[in-house]
Amino acid sequence: MPTPTREQQEEILKNSDVAGIGAHCDIDTCKQLDFLPFVCESCKGTFCLDHRTETAHSCKKAGSWLSSLRPKAAPSSGAAAPATNPRRSLLAAPCAAPKCKTTINTPTQPGVKCVGCWKQYCLSHRLQDAHDCKPPAAAPMTVAQAKAKEALANFNKAWTSQKSAAGGGGVAAMFASLTQGRKPGNSSVAAVMKMKREAKGDEKVPPEKRVYLYVEAEARTTTAKLPKGTFWYNKDWSVGKVLDLAAKSLQITNVNNQGNDEEKRLRVFHVEGGRVLSFGEKIGDATANGNTIVLLRGLQMTELIE
């Protein structure tokens, strides 16, 4: 079967469904229909596979696409272009020395914080004898802090004066009654060994993490079905967690998580330390093996306890 001429091919394509597909080559002597034509990046012309290169179609703008990708040359002037400034740190600040103009906390100039005056200096003024080092002034005391400090002083004064008085009233007398006439927990090796045999606690706590304590309930402020016991706790547990476990062990009603009524809340009094422990501190930091803690209810001096 003879090959159809170009005119016959075009006529066939016009009458077929693929007439709108592809494009003709821009070369006048070719005009071949290519279903996947190539576009020259330099002259933007459309070409077939055989004429797709700039050399094959004698591109009038040969190489222009490559030159557009190159950076523009620097201006041919005698003055050099200014260097780009390095990124400025958000913490950049002048040296705290009054007469120093150095900017610190930059990539080239680190800042050094003085442990005496808590100001930052450059490397030349970092030492205390190289700048006027003065301790920072204490922040003014708030009204609440001043009130708590005064209340604590009055409380300590009352406690000291009533500690040896029999039948005294109030919180100071109650604390004195807890410490007066009471033998502190025996922390001797024999006593601790005996505690370890008698104590109860969570078996999951490793032996090296345990602190062994005598736990009691103060009779006048707490009604307990089991007035005392010996237990071990994890040294890393908070006083608040130990209080919950101790109250459960002694079967004491614990409503600490049900409201802020200080009249009903339980507190932990450390006999050897002579103070009420804060809920957030670790029991291992405040007590030692053989110490005694007492559960109290009804303390209303929150600013002194916390």
TrEMBL record:
Record GO terms (molecular function): zinc ion binding
UniProt-listed InterPro entries: AN1-like_Znf, UBL_ZFAND1-like, Znf_AN1
Top-rank taxon: Eukaryota
Gene Ontology annotations for the cellular component aspect, listed alphabetically: cytoplasm
Record key words, sorted: Metal-binding, Zinc, Zinc-finger
AN1-type domain: residues covered: 19-67
Gene3D superfamilies per record: AN1-like Zinc finger
Name the record gives this protein: AN1-type domain-containing protein
Protein source organism: Sphaerosporella brunnea
